Predict the structure.
Amino acid sequence: MKAKTKYVPVPSRSILPERDAGRDPVLECVKLGITLGGIKAVEDFNLTIGRTEIVGLIGPNGAGKTTVFNLLTKVYQPTTGTILLNGQDTHGMNTMQVNKAGIARTFQNIRLFRNLSVIDNVKTAMNNEMRYNMLSAILRLPNYRREEVAAHRRALKLLSIFDMQNVADVPAGSLPYGAQRRLEIVRALATNPSLLLLDEPAAGMNPSETADLMDNIRKVHEMFQIAIILIEHDMSLVMNICEGICVLNFGHVIAKGTPDEIQSNPAVIEAYLGRKKEA
């Protein structure tokens, strides 16, 4: 059973978990927005995430959830607003730069290198840390070999979190669906993020796999002490694992609060179920 998190106000007028209140937030979105094809896909999006907070981003289909993730990771450049990551304005950064600055993500549709081995998929995420040049790699110089050995060991250690070290040499595309989902999370962790974005991690999973996923997310959170935002339609998963929840509808934030507050919020109920007809 998930313990309830105590939220407290902080100087930025947001609320954060009490344990994070004395530290700068990992993420601040201020009046974030984007216009796509003449339509305001996201507008006036404000969100502050504590350094070790687990937050759910939910809403009906088409609400703008994945668009927000695309803004945070610079797949899209915002039309308006500011994104501060670890206090740094990400304006002008590209996807690679924002990843290096601390954001990693998974996707709705699995995006593994299917023909590469499991361990090579993880090692591809470590390129930012490699300290050898192309000549060293071609000639297999000592610094190249040292870096490769260190990367191999670290990749195995990360895989062991999900008990996947025994399939390290298996092609990623041959793994069962749930294992591919876990591998995506491992690969994201390999970039040393301070903020992990999970886009519908339970999509396509059966109840047993979803339960295992919840345990794995908790394990990652406890081990790495990082912030996590997840988009998910499985409300049981969201309510059981998230401390705070942000609800989007038509690109606007309509509610923010704890799971208990969100479940009883009239605006949220209306967004999901529609307005009741007048008697």
Notes: Residues 33 and 80 are 5 Å apart (CA to CA). The radius of gyration is 20 Å. The longest helix spans residues 142-161. The chain has ten helices and twelve strands.
